[in-house]
Amino acid sequence: MNEDFTTKWISQLKKGTLSFLVLSILKDEKEYYGYDLINEIKKKTSIEIAEGTLYPLMNRLKKEELVESKWVEQESGIPRKYYKITTLGLSTASEMKIYWDNLNTTINLI
């Protein structure tokens, strides 16, 4: 087994899947702040995601107009940035789900 190749492949697979996971979690139209989103990903998958990975991803999704964010003041502590999926994000997540399901079906045939 080529462990180096496998490790790199897994890393690339995770990177390509994270956008889909985040949009899928946000599509229930609940607002999440970063830490909650990380915990939700951990709860629903076996993928570990660091803040240093999530926040650049959220910035890219925001730039693509798939999510929007807002700062919310907290009674104690610093303000939190909450993320919410946009209408474009919902339709994109639906398209991604169709592709994901077709890919899974194809892979399962191998």
From TrEMBL:
<protein>
    <submittedName>
        <fullName>Transcriptional regulator, PadR family</fullName>
    </submittedName>
</protein>
<feature type="domain" description="Transcription regulator PadR N-terminal">
    <location>
        <begin position="22"/>
        <end position="90"/>
    </location>
</feature>
<dbReference type="InterPro" id="IPR052509">
    <property type="entry name" value="Metal_resp_DNA-bind_regulator"/>
</dbReference>
<dbReference type="InterPro" id="IPR036388">
    <property type="entry name" value="WH-like_DNA-bd_sf"/>
</dbReference>
<dbReference type="InterPro" id="IPR036390">
    <property type="entry name" value="WH_DNA-bd_sf"/>
</dbReference>
<dbReference type="InterPro" id="IPR005149">
    <property type="entry name" value="Tscrpt_reg_PadR_N"/>
</dbReference>
<dbReference type="Pfam" id="PF03551">
    <property type="entry name" value="PadR"/>
</dbReference>
